[in-house]
């Protein structure tokens, strides 16, 4: 078996950390991170159009509308036609959606508190600096990719 070089080891470690973080957040039965992101953005931008929401989430409108249909069936959101342009749908949280978002926020806060004890404050600051440096560098790399390709995948 070949040994990994330092960069491969670092990327493998980061991949493991991200999988574990996602797993920690998805322990609830509330639909995971995507539901949280959608509900949080709708709360922040009350009455947002589905097109604007898709742009903020970097999702295809068709994929978002499928997810919004599920949330609407669960009575978490409500979509209504924009009165000035019937082609546009506006999205709002319903009471059940607000309750679910608050429950998810509490779960996330508890998870973040438990994670905070793993690193010292100094270690957390240093890791944050390194992660920012890495993400900035990766962002530059992805801007160099051919148009229509993102993160190694064609859109």
Blueprint (SSEs and pairs):
Blueprint: H1 6-25, H2 32-44, E1 48-49, H3 50-57, H4 61-73, E2 77-82, E3 85-93, H5 95-116, H6 121-143, E4 149-150, E5 153-154
Helix pairs in contact: 2-5
How does this structure look, described?
Helix 2 (32-44) packs across helix 5 (95-116). The protein has a domain at 20-119: Winged helix-like DNA-binding domain superfamily/Winged helix DNA-binding domain (Arc Repressor Mutant, subunit A, Orthogonal Bundle), CATH 1.10.10. The chain is built from six helices and five strands; from the N terminus they run H-H-E-H-H-E-E-H-H-E-E. By secondary structure, it is α+β, with helices and mostly antiparallel strands. The model has no long low-confidence stretch (mean pLDDT 87). The two termini are 35 Å apart. The strands form two sheets. It has a three-stranded antiparallel β-sheet. Strands 4-5 form a two-stranded antiparallel ribbon. It has helices at 6-25, 32-44, 50-57, 61-73, 95-116, 121-143; strands spanning 48-49, 77-82, 85-93, 149-150, 153-154.
Task: Based on Cα principal axes, name the global outline.
Answer: globular
Q: Name the CATH architecture of the domain at 20-119.
A: Orthogonal Bundle
What is the CATH domain class of the domain at 20-119? Mainly Alpha
Q: How many runs of DSSP E, i.e. beta strands?
A: 5
Distance, first to last CA = 35 Å
Number of separate helices: 6
Q: Classify the beta-strand content into a percent band.
A: 5-15%
Major beta-sheet overview? 3 strands, antiparallel
**C-alpha Rg, in Å?**
19 Å
N-to-C series of helices and strands:
HHEHHEEHHEE
Category from helices, strands and their pairing: alpha+beta
Looking at this structure, what is the CATH superfamily of the domain at 20-119? Winged helix-like DNA-binding domain superfamily/Winged helix DNA-binding domain
CATH topology of the domain at 20-119: Arc Repressor Mutant, subunit A
How would you write the strand order of the largest sheet?
A: 1-3-2
Residue windows where pLDDT falls under 50 for at least 5 positions: none
């Amino acid at each position: 078996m070949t040994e990994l070089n330092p960069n491969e080891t670092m990327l493998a470690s980061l991949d493991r950390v991200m999988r574990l973080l996602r797993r920690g957040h998805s322990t609830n039965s509330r639909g995971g991170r995507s539901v949280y992101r959608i509900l949080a953005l709708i709360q922040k931008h009350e009455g947002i159009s589905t097109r604007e929401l898709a742009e903020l989430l970097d999702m295809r409108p068709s994929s978002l509308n499928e997810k919004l249909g599920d949330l609407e069936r669960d009575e978490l959101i409500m979509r209504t036609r924009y009165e000035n342009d019937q082609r546009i749908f506006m999205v709002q949280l319903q009471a059940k959606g607000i309750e679910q978002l608050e429950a998810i926020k509490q779960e996330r806060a508890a998870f973040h508190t438990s994670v905070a004890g793993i690193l010292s404050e100094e270690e957390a600051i240093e890791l944050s600096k390194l992660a920012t440096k890495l993400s900035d560098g990766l962002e530059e790399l992805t801007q160099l990719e051919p148009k229509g390709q993102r993160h190694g995948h064609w859109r």
